[in-house]
């Protein structure tokens, strides 16, 4: 590859190896000045690793990085900052108990004779937030602001350091549709000013909207770079997964049967403040339908599911499952009729230091299928795990004996879904089942959930992904500040309209009319 100053950053022949896996295998990537360049790939394709090499978090085993045609050494993030490279990480790097302003200037403070010049810093931040429409309350504590606001803080951190090369790692994972639109506008604004942007994503809509070029990685290898104007979503998903992928969920209209779950006037206390996190919520889910709870993260969805599954105590109301009131039952008793794909796969989904096969039978090791006279039938457990691993394409280094902790997040998720669906319970509670998964894995999981629905299961889905909400659900309930503010038919509401209810700008009255 020839070197010229058309490229502000060149990563040439980068190889990064972790134990047992080549995360980046001889990858070259060139970023033009003033372009938005997307980096696309499946889970575990090596996107974040490559960007972490550019930001100095990892050192590559081979290859070199050039800035403006000149070879540079980036040994740590301070070196990257000195080269005007900034990064917004997928999991924000903020100090919760500090104010917004303190987080922005942390590590890049203006001092005079050893004293912090906060006034000057505040002026600079205010000017930046004004200029780019990134309004934030500089005196609020980070722990008290929304995730969308936290992301603005991360972006202001980069701008405050006068960064010219901006890396965004999966920046839209936690945003509402309106916030995503705003972010896209901001990114285009940066590019217009001559800043160069690397944008990691596996959301094809966003890439087509905002990127000039796309580079695709697959299983640690570079597949190719294309101009977005000359490609389409289908072609990109083929490059990314290596086979044609169905991007739309194919399903017949639901044929709901009898009621499986009824929730009446349920309240769940908050761990954070005095108010209830879930306040007087009522709804039902019937056989053969997918009911989705939509909302912006942090509006009581987590606590509602904790209340239903028994992870949290409720403070009012009742839960009826399969005709039996279970409001005060133990988690184990509830599990007799309920499968639960939890939001936090590490905390509630897996025992990370157990093997994959042990995790597959966590709730069932007492079944006669898996034990005799108190002894576990190891062969039965192994062959059961092997069947599920194959059916759900769970990729791991050593098959059933792989330790769960060593697997990628996407494959941990597939393992949990395989186990929970296979338990064959009347109600499946699926919380963000495809979070962090790529199009190939999402396609598989969506088709599994639809198949379960068609077999007469009742499915309660909680999702922050609006595409998923719109394409998978038969009914949508919107949650805002612990209450259900609307019930909709996905065929009769637009994403924009749904976003207004999610943000609290609209709500339905008790009679189902707009208030």
Name the features.
single chain, 515 residues, alpha/beta, Rossmann fold, 3 domains, 6-stranded mixed sheet, 17 helices, 32% helix
Detailed description of the structure:
With 515 residues, this protein is α/β, with parallel strands linked by helices. The chain folds into three domains: 7-241, P-loop containing nucleotide triphosphate hydrolases (Rossmann fold, 3-Layer(aba) Sandwich), CATH 3.40.50.300; 246-337 and 426-515, Rossmann fold (3-Layer(aba) Sandwich), CATH 3.40.50; 348-424, no CATH class. It is built from 17 helices and 24 strands. The protein has a six-stranded mixed β-sheet with strand order 6-9-10-3-11-12, sandwiched between helices. Helix 14 (409-422) packs parallel to helix 15 (439-454). The mean pLDDT is 88.
């Amino acid at each position: 590859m020839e070197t010229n100053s058309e490229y502000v950053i060149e990563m040439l022949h980068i190889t990064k190896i972790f134990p047992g896996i080549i995360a980046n295998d001889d990858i070259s990537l060139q970023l033009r000045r003033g372009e938005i360049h997307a980096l696309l790939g499946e889970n575990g394709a090596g996107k974040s690793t490559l960007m972490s090499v550019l930001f100095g978090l990892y050192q590559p085993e081979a290859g070199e990085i050039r800035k403006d045609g000149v070879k540079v050494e980036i040994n740590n993030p301070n070196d990257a900052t000195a080269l005007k490279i900034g990064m917004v990480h997928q999991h924000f790097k903020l100090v919760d108990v500090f104010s917004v302003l303190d987080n922005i200037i942390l590590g890049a403070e203006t001092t005079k004779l050893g004293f912090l010049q906060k006034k000057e810093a505040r002026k600079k931040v205010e000017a930046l937030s004004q200029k780019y429409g990134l309004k934030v309350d500089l005196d609020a504590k980070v722990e008290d602001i929304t995730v969308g606001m936290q992301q603005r803080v991360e972006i202001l951190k980069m701008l405050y350091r006068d960064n010219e090369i901006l890396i965004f790692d999966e920046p839209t994972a936690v945003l509402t549709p309106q916030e995503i639109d705003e972010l896209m506008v901001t990114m285009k604004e940066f590019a217009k000013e001559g800043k160069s942007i690397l944008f990691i994503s596996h959301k094809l809509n966003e890439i087509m909207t905002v990127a000039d070029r796309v580079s695709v990685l697959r299983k640690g290898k570079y597949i190719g770079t294309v101009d977005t104007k000359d490609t389409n979503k289908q072609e990109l998903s083929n490059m990314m997964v290596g086979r044609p992928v169905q991007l739309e969920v194919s399903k017949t209209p639901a044929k709901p049967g009898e009621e499986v779950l009824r929730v009446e006037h349920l309240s769940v206390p908050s761990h954070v403040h005095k108010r209830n996190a879930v306040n007087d919520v009522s709804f039902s889910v019937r056989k053969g339908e997918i009911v989705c709870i939509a909302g912006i993260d942090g509006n009581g969805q987590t606590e509602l599911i904790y209340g239903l599954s028994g992870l949290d105590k409720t403070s009012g109301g009742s839960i009826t499952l399969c005709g039996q009131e279970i409001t005060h039952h133990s988690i184990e008793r509830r599990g007799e009729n309920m499968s639960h794909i939890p939001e936090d796969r590490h905390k509630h989904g897996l025992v990370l230091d157990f093997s994959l096969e042990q995790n597959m039978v966590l709730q069932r090791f007492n079944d006669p299928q898996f034990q005799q006279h108190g002894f576990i039938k190891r062969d039965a457990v192994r062959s059961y795990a092997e069947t599920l691993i194959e059916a759900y394409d769970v990729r791991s280094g050593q098959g059933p004996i792989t330790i769960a902790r060593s697997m990628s997040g996407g494959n941990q998720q597939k393992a949990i879904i395989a186990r929970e669906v296979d338990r064959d319970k009347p109600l499946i509670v699926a919380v963000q089942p495809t979070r962090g998964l790529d199009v190939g894995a999402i396609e598989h999981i969506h088709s599994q959930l639809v198949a379960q629905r068609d077999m007469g299961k009742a499915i309660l889905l909680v999702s922050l992904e609006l595409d998923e909400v719109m394409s998978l659900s038969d009914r949508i309930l919107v949650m805002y500040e612990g209450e259900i503010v609307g019930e909709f038919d996905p065929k009769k509401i637009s994403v924009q309209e749904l976003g207004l209810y999610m943000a609290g700008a609209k709500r339905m009255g008790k009679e189902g009319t707009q208030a």
